[in-house]
Amino acid sequence: MLRACMLDFGGSWDKYLYLIEFAYNNSFQATIGMAPYEALYGKACRSPVNWDEVGERVLLGPDLVQATNSAIQKIRGSIQVAQSRQKSYADVRRRELEFVVGERVFLRVAPVKGIFAIWEEGQAQRKKYIHDPSHVLDPEPLQLDESLCYEEIPVRILARETKLLRNRTIHLVKVLWRNHQVEEATWEREDDIKAR
After folding, report:
1. Average pLDDT for 177-183
2. Are the C-beta atoms of residues 163 and 169 closer than 8 Å to each other?
3. Which of 40-49, 131-140, 170-179 tops mean pLDDT?
């Protein structure tokens, strides 16, 4: 926003910074449906132009008031131009995706990713399993704590690194934990891992 207004003021943006802030805080924001000032304080902002009461002596000259109002209008125009420019950039990349039933698409939903077929709406992706008494399933016994927690057990060290902090050297290792993906590996102190 500051960059958008800088050209209009010929590089002397620091003199108008308070007006830029004022214009931004009192401009309507479509996402929240009101101006940020109104969202924060619950009422519309009284601009410095409207602070004078009826019958009160005007301390500010009409030229200063007019210059302030014109600067605010110029800033609002610059903000509107910047918003429309950013919207046009976003609209170029935005497109409506349409798929045909039976078409294969790449679907990435963490932690599962792969190629899946498009199904008709309301159709189950997997067939329902009908139990056959001749099928014998021997599930592995589960080992659960009383607290229903499991212990993090290191499986493999993926990388090593040495950090120098002031006058100390810290040896770090990137550890792959059981029940976790490779992307979820964490950096731990080598001493802590050896102690396990």
Report:
1. 85
2. yes
3. 170-179
Domain that holds residue 27: 1-49+62-90
Dist. CA 47–CA 35, nearest whole Å: 13
Question: Looking at the domain assignment, is residue 132 inside a domain?
Answer: no
pTM: 0.29
CA distance 5 to 12: 10
> And the tokens for 10?
């010929």
| Residue 45 in domain | yes
Please give the structure tokens belonging to residue 102: 């039976």
For the chain, how many structural domains are there in total? 2
So what's the pLDDT on residue 122? 59
- 14-39 pLDDT tens trace: 777 777 788 888 888 776 777 888 77
- Does residue 117 form part of some domain? no
The answer to whether residue 173 is domain-embedded is yes
Instruction: Report helix, strand or coil for 76.
Output: helix
Calculate the dihedral angle through the C-alpha atoms of 25, 27, 28, 31, rounding to the nearest 10 degrees: -50
Same domain, 9 and 85: yes
